[in-house]
Each structure stands twice: as C-alpha cells, then as structure tokens.
Amino acid sequence: MKRTAFIIYFSFAMLLLMQAFSLKSQISIGGIPCSFEYNFSKAAIPTVAISKPNITQLLLEDNIAAKNGEAYRMGILLPVNKGIHNSGSWTNLKNGDKIWQLRVQSKDALATAFYFDSFYLPKGSKLFVYNDDRASLIGAFTANNNHKSGMFATSLILGDAAILEYYQPFSVTDTVILNIAEINYAYRGVNNYKYGFGSSESCEVNMNCAEGNNWQLEKKGVCRINIRKSGGTYWCTGSLVNNTLQDYTPYLLTADHCGNGASASDIAQWMFYFNYEATSCSNPSSEGGLAAQSMTGAIKIANGGNSGNTGSDFFLLKLNNNVPDAYNPCFLGWDRSGDSSLTGVSIHHPAGDIKKISTYTVPLVTAAYQTALSHWKVYWSATANGNGVTEGGSSGSPIFNASGRIIGTLTGGQSDCSNPTGEDYYGKFDWHWDKDGSTAAEHLKEWLDPSGSNVKQLNSILYKKVDFEANTTLVKLGSSVNFTNKSIGGPFLYQWSFENGTPATSISENPINISFPAIGFYDVSLKASNIDTVINLTKTDYIRVWDDIKIYVTNSNSHLWVDLGNNLYTYFNLYVFDVSGKKLLAFENNTINQNTYSFNLNCLSSGVYFIRINSNLGTYNKKIVIIRP
Q1: Above 50 in pLDDT, residue 19?
Q2: Known catalytic residue at 348
Q3: Can 313 be counted among the known catalytic residues?
Q4: pLDDT reported for residue 2
Q5: Could you write out the DSSP letters of every residue in 240-300?
Q6: How does DSSP assign 110-157, residue by residue?
C-alpha cells in the first residue's frame, strides 16, 4: 500500500549514472571548485571522522519494522557539529582570494548528505561539495541559497567521505557561517538501485507519451519531493496549488502521511524537484541533467492530521522561495464541489522516478480509506503505452478531473504492475477544504481562498510575467537599439510602444533596429496578451539618448567652452594635459545645471594640449592648439 510503502531509498542510482561534475541538487549556478585549478592535495585537507553506527543493530530493527509494515529506512542521521568556525583549513591565494576545505568521513557509509543548522554565504562567495574521486559534485551554492531559517541541506554524495569547499574572493568582507549539524549515513538500499531514476515498474507511462498530450499544462505543477523526517529519508509527490488571489504564492500540496512526524527543521531541508521527466515517450538512458531544477526548504501551513488514518490525508506547505521563472511553474486549479469525475489522470513520481501519468476511465466513487467517507476510489485503465498505476513515491500526487482540476491526493491502495486492476484511494479535495477539523491549521479553505470568494472551482495558471531588455539603454544619437522579449508563461501576442522611437510601435516578439532621433529619456512599453491574460509593462525613461560633448576654444584663446547640448549628463570632470601627459588644470565635481560652461585658459602658453572629460556617460577626449601673440 502506498501509505506504508511510499518510504523509499535516496536515489543512489542517479548518482552512479551521473557524468563527472554534473549537477543534481538545489538551485545552484554550476562551476568547478577553485582547488581543482590549483590541483590542491586531498591529503592536506583536515578530516573529521564520524563514528560508524551499529549496522547489525540497525538491520535487526529494520527486520522488525518490515514485519510491522513500517517505513523502509535506508540511512540514519549522525551528529557532526563541525563547520567553518571550528574545523577545516584555510588557503590564501596570491590574488587575495581564499579557500576553506573540510573532509568528513564515516567509515563504510554507502553515501552521505549534509544537513546545516547554520548556513549563510556572503554575496560573491561559493560553496561546493564533492567526493574523493570528484565523480560526484554539487554546487556552486551562493547567497541565493540563504534562508532566514539558517538551514540548508545537500543531496547525497556517493561514498563514505565528502569534501566541502568554500571560496571567498578578496572583495568579500561579510562573514560566512557554515555549521554541519548532521550527516545522513546511508547503510543500505544503495547497490540495488531500487529507488529513484529508472526504478518504477515497467507498466508505468511516461508523462510525455501520447497519454500526456492533453495534460502538458498540469504537469508543470507536479514535483518530486525528497523528505527528511524521524531520522530517515523518503520520496513523495506534490503539486503547486493556485489560490483565489492568483498571486503565485508557492503553496504545495502533498499527503499528511508524507509529512506527519517531520519537524519544522526537517521540512526546512526537504528538497523539491520540478520538471523531472523524460523529454519523450521513451525512457532516457541516463538521468543527465533532469534533476537540475530543484529547491530546498518549506514551512508547514496546514494538515489533515493522524497520517491519513482518519480524515483525508492532506499536508499543505509553503515553499521557502518563489519557484524560479526558468522552471515555468503551473499553479494548479482545483474543484472542491465534491462531484465525481468520469475520466481523468494522476501525475506522479512512482518510486522517485521520472514523471509518469496514470489514466482512469471508470467514474470515481466515494469510499472510506479507514473510517470516514473522505476518499475517492479509483481504478486505472490500460492505454496505448502501458497501464499506469501508482507506487511508493506516488503518495501525495494529485488526481485530476476531466477539466484538469485537482479533486484529490493519493493516500494508498493496492494497484501495481502485477495488479493493475487493484484500487487506489485519493483523499478528497473537498474534504481537505474544511472537514478535517475546526481550525485553519486543519483546512485548505483559509489558505487557498484568502479572499473569501467561496468559489467551488478555480482554474490553473501558469506563472506569467512580462519583461524585456535592450541590448543597450544608453544610446548615442544616430544608433539603433534591439529589444529581446523576456516574458514567460506564453505564448503571447506582443504589442510594443517606443516613445519618440522610429518605428513607434511593433508587434514582433523581438524588435530590432529601433532608433530614437533626439536626445532625451524615453519610455518603452510592452503588452503581452493571450486568450486569458493581458499583462502590461512600462519601463519609464528606459532609453537614454545622448550625443558627443562639443568643445571649442575662443578666438582669443582665453577660454575653453564646453557645450553639453541638452545631453543627459549629470556631472563631469574636466582635465587639461600637456603633450608629455602632465596634468596642468583640473575642474572637478562640476554639477550640471546649464548647457554650456566656460573655463579660463589664460594661464596656458602656446602649444598643443589635450582635454579629457570624465562624465556619467563616459570619457571624451579632444586635442586643442593655443597660439599666443
């Protein structure tokens, strides 16, 4: 049953299939540790040794747990309490940059992961984690990974030792904070590759087979969750959900039995993988970069309680960060009417594998999973490319009605590839709404309908944003500008407006060769629209058109005149040099309050001189000749 069998091993298969230096972790920027370039010696890195647990005792406990139908435990958390303040070593580079390194080893671990209780990276710094042979590497993590909770977690590094490397440029003066509270010591479930990439059963149907053609919007809201709780690690599935304000609040819905027992600090270190799917109907030969779009951390908002043994088994989170634009997220619609559905699908990550789709063509019926009539009973149907079912790791996944709205989340059931006609049970969305208890902490209602609209259905929305950029915003008179559309959530129709531009409008997605025939500041506007959306963006004074400063000397050679010609200068400094480069005169900190300025040159004798003007628009040079009688 999914409720008891959803607990799964970390995906070591994915680690083994990685290419060298491929990244498969939280939001990171990639790159290679600086020490690789300098060929640092591993032997010089201080090592913290973590005592090996009693594996025999752990396995005895696991045998008892298995007989009781309890969770499959693949690792145990061991205390470390080491970090940049009390361990490791610093290396100063010749350019003033510096590197801190620490090696953590726990004998015979099949893999390790790090959990930080204090984590703060200054802007400009980077953190990497890799194993001894450098075959597994994650990072670079940056200030973008900081969170107010001060917590952070990494994905697994294969082997019993891992090296942390922190790089700090000379220009960084802020204080770094890194402390490893625990490591996850993986002692089983690794070599058989049972969970994670490529581990789901053969009857499952990939999301991008023909069965998924009509569900391409909905799939963008479903993610794989790597859960930490009660000293173990697990896989579940979750979905981004829309709310009546439609403001892209990153609420994520999964099952209570996935989250029950997890502390706030545990949830702050959960990992969420988006768009983890094959690009076609065929299974890819390796994971490659499929796991690259991920996030770390959330807070619990509400739950149904009692791990689904009573009620409808829901768990609502709010992600610690907004889902990145590049993930193109969809915030899924829902139906709380309680009406059944004749047909629909579930989108899920069975066994922590890539995204799959299961189809039902038999109407859903109300059923009791334990006691209350709080669930939908579903039977899956064979389709062109398989007979999608659910497995451990599918728990918490959404089931959609024919209109593409969530009407439930997976608790458990009997279906698998050897029993494709077995029933599954999904906690009803309308039960999640307000029937699991009497407070907002036991409802979806207060969170997904903050406006109090009392609507029974809400549609899905893609994250949509209009944006653009110019190849330059500081334009010399006579030059042209090219614009690039940066909008997401389309496809859109585009309507551009260029104040005082030639042409003044465009319907191209990426307009080019737009000119501005006069000096000044000009607005640029873009309206992006489709069947259900119109979004406008105006960037005020976005384009700034300028021309060269005019410099000339009076006939008497007594004064130097500077003509700004209504240009966009806010300040300038003027210097006079002789032919040897010696500075003779300096007129600095000239605040612009007029178009022309005069400077006395009577102190200069006959000769050739060079004028340099430094301004907010750059540097301008001119040669002048002075002839005295």
Answers
A1: no
A2: no
A3: yes
A4: 59
A5: EB--TT-S---EEEE-HHHHTT--HHHHTT-EEEES-S-SSSSPPSS-TTTT-SEEE-EEE
A6: SEEEEEEEEEE--TT-EEEEEETTSSSEEEEE-GGG--TT--EE---E
Q: How many CB atoms lie within 10 A of CB 576?
A: 20
Catalytic residue (one of 25, 87, 199, 395): 395
DSSP, collapsed to helix, strand or coil, labels residue 8 as: coil
The DSSP string of 464-531 is: -B--EEES-SEEETT-EE-EEE--BS---EEEEEETT-BSSEE--SS---EE--SSEEEEEEEEEE-S
Selected catalytic residue, list 257, 348, 432, 443:
257
End-to-end CA distance of the chain: 105
Per-chain mean pLDDT for the chain: 87
Q: Which two tokens stand for residue 302?
A: 């509400």
Nearest CA to 258 among 370, 151, 330, 352?
352
Split at pLDDT 50, 70, 90, the class of 70 is very low
SS3 37: helix
Collapsed DSSP state (helix, strand, coil) of residue 51: coil
What's the rounded Cα separation, in Å, for the pair 51 and 625?
Answer: 82
The DSSP H or E segment spanning 80 is strand 75-83
Distance CA 608, CA 613 (A): 17
541 given a catalytic annotation: no
The single residue of 117, 313, 335, 430 carrying the catalytic annotation is: 313
As a dihedral over the C-alpha atoms of residue 587, residue 590, residue 593, residue 598, rounded to 10 degrees, the angle is: 10
| pLDDT exceeds 60 at position 353 | yes
Mean pLDDT (whole number) for 470-494: 91
**Percentage of residues in the chain with pLDDT exceeding 90?**
57
Domains of the chain: 2-186 (no CATH), 210-461 (2.40.10.10), 468-546 (2.60.40.10), 550-626 (2.60.40.10)
pLDDT tens digits along 75-95: 788 999 999 999 999 999 988
For the stretch 360-372, pLDDT in tens is 999 999 999 877 8
Give phi and psi for 182, each to the nearest 5.
Answer: -150, 160
Q: 579-586 long-range contacts, Cβ below 8 Å, gap at least 24?
A: 579/607, 579/608, 579/609, 579/610, 584/609
The pLDDT value recorded for residue 255 is 93
Read off the amino acid at residue 309: N
